[in-house]
Amino acid sequence: MDRIRSELCDGYRRIEATMAGRIEDGEVVTRTMLDAARRSAEEATPTWLCAEVVETLSAQVPSPIETDVLVGAGDRGFLLFEKAVCSTMLGDAGSLGIAPVNGVLWWTADFDGQEFHQDADHPNLIVVHALSTLTSREMPWSPRVWSDSTLTDLGMFPMPLGIEGAPPSGLNNDLAPAVRLLLGYGVAVATSRVLFDTVADSSTCAPTLSAPRQVAVVYDA
Fold first, then answer.
1. pLDDT at site 202
2. SS3 76
3. Which residue from 57, 61, 122, 159 has the highest number of Cβ atoms inside 10 Å of its Cβ?
4. Which sign does the torsion angle of CA 197, 199, 203, 204 carry?
5. Does 206 have pLDDT greater than 90?
6. What is the pLDDT of residue 205?
7. In angstroms, rounded to a whole number, what is the distance separating the alpha carbons of residues 140 and 148?
């Protein structure tokens, strides 16, 4: 997990380097997203979810549900999955334009209609980055930035905070399983229904980084 974190951070840094000195429309937003994703990979605790835990958390999402539970596990987060939680057309990856979602990063922001502001006191959305074993074909930079990385960033999808609604179904949203998992994980952490174990490779973690962990137990809702 530390290796995956390091690989992702290196990829984001390479992208940021390719953009150095460029001034184009949309650059400010893109730079903000890259910086925020890298910071999430660096600062959030990498958390491993086995397939059984994913199934349990996804099945325990109440309806209706407040979207503020998405930040129940923190304003920044980093989850890795034993098995892909869904397949998505986000990023148009692979020969079929579909890629597995093998992990997610998230960060909160205040979006004023033009720019994302990180570390806001009152964020109005959460930005989720889908991580995959495949590489997006929609990137404005070379896919080679991810050549040494186990996972890549397919792209992001924002979700509003402060609203109530039903959990998404998979009928018109191929990211619905990932969203349900995030909702279930957020509410479980906020209500202290999960127990974490430190993973075996945590001894290799740099002193400035949080040690990776895995969800060991999910208590009944």
1. 56
2. strand
3. 57
4. negative
5. no
6. 66
7. 18
Closest to 160 (Cα-Cα) out of 138, 181, 183 = 183
Report the alpha-carbon distance of residue 88 to residue 136 in Å, rounded: 11
- Do strands 46-49 and 213-218 pair parallel, antiparallel, or not at all (unpaired)? parallel
Is residue 78 scored above 90 in pLDDT? yes
Q: Is the pLDDT of residue 14 over 90?
A: yes
Q: Is 49 helix (H, G, I), strand (E, B) or coil?
A: strand
Q: Confirm if 8 and 16 have CB atoms less than 8 A apart.
A: no
| Per-residue H/E/C for 83-146 | CCCCEECCCCCCCCCCEECCEEEEEEEEECCCCEEECCCCCCEEEEEEEECCCCCCCCCCHHHH
pLDDT of residue 174: 95
- Residue 66: exposed, middle, or buried by beta-carbon count in 10 A (0-12, 13-18, 19+)? middle
Q: What is the pTM of this model?
A: 0.93
Tens-digit pLDDT profile for residues 88-135: 999 999 888 999 999 999 999 999 988 899 989 999 999 999 999 999
Helix (H) or strand (E) holding 79: strand 76-81
Q: Cα torsion for 107, 113, 114, 116, to the nearest 10°?
A: -10
Whether the Cβ atoms of residue 47 and residue 212 lie closer than 8 Å to each other: yes
Say if CB 40 and CB 78 are below 8 A apart: yes
